[in-house]
């Protein structure tokens, strides 16, 4: 059941994340969020005396920290985005994120304290990543380049040719209306989503957001 819930949350909220921020950032947040959860897990078990008795047999597995990073990241980006939950109804992302955080905090005294500590590690990364992104610092850029280079290396070992694509930077990007939409336009659309939801966007605004996510 735990794995199934992770898959469902990742599927639905991952789609929202990808639509707004792009596939590259989704992949980077997923991987780095999982690593952040692992780091906090290791630090907690080696620093806090309460874990000393179980340290010799402690182990961690799963992708919950990665999923938590996605949930908290997208809830931080568009906190008022509304999704419909079965048996509950319309709920804003910020409340979903808050419930997850509270549940992990109150579960730290239980039998799976390390797992919940890892969840919080992923949550911390998701929150700080979006805050830094909003300030103009994309922490995923260098990581994704490294992943791409690593992937390209193995592809080249299989005899596949690497195709170089050069973009003409002198030509501005065009939209359906023939005008270039800068970051301020995208930010305005994201603000509209945060206040009124994705369904409030016009077709042109959805197209602009989609193209922006492909360029991220």
Defining key terms:
two-stranded antiparallel ribbon, 2 domains, 216 residues, globular, 8 helices, mainly alpha
Query: Span between N and C termini?
Result: 34 Å
- The tally of structural domains comes to 2
Give the number of helices. 8
Average pLDDT, rounded to a whole number, is 79
The gross shape turns out to be: globular
- For the largest sheet, list the strands in their spatial order: 1-2
Low-confidence stretches: 170-180
Largest sheet: 2 strands, antiparallel
Description:
- The protein is mainly α and 216 residues long.
- Helices cover 65% and strands 4% of the residues.
- The protein contains eight helices and two strands, in the order αααββααααα.
- The chain has a two-stranded antiparallel ribbon with strand order 1-2.
- Helix 2 (23-47) crosses helix 5 (113-134).
- The longest helix has 25 residues, at 23-47.
- It is globular, with a radius of gyration of 20 Å.
- Mean pLDDT is 79; it is low at 170-180.
Summarize the structure.
The chain has about 220 residues and is mainly alpha-helical.
Layout of helices and strands, plus pairs?
Elements: H1 2-21, H2 23-47, H3 64-77, E1 82-85, E2 89-92, H4 93-106, H5 113-134, H6 140-157, H7 183-196, H8 203-215
Antiparallel strand pairs: 1-2
Helix pairs in contact: 1-2, 1-3, 1-8, 2-3, 2-5, 2-6, 3-4, 3-5
């Amino acid at each position: 059941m735990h794995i199934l819930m992770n898959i469902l949350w990742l599927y639905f909220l991952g789609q929202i994340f990808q639509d707004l921020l792009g596939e590259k950032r989704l992949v980077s947040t997923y991987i780095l969020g999982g690593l952040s959860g692992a780091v906090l897990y290791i630090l907690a078990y080696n620093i806090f005396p309460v874990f000393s008795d179980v340290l010799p047999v402690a182990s961690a597995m799963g992708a919950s920290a990665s999923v938590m990073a996605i949930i908290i990241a997208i809830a931080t980006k568009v906190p008022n985005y509304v999704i419909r939950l079965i048996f509950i109804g319309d709920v804003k992302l910020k409340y979903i994120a808050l419930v997850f955080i509270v549940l992990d905090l109150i579960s730290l005294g239980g039998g799976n304290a390390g797992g919940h500590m890892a969840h919080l590690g992923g949550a911390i990364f998701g929150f700080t990543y979006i805050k830094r992104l909003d300030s103009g610092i994309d922490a995923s850029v260098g990581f994704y380049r490294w992943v791409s280079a690593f992937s390209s290396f193995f592809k080249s070992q299989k005899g596949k040719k690497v195709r170089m694509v050069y973009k003409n930077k002198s030509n501005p990007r065009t939209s359906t209306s023939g005008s270039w939409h800068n970051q301020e336009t995208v930010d305005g659309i994201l603000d509209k989503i945060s206040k009124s939801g994705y369904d409030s966007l016009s077709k042109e605004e959805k197209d602009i957001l989609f193209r922006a996510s492909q360029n991220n």
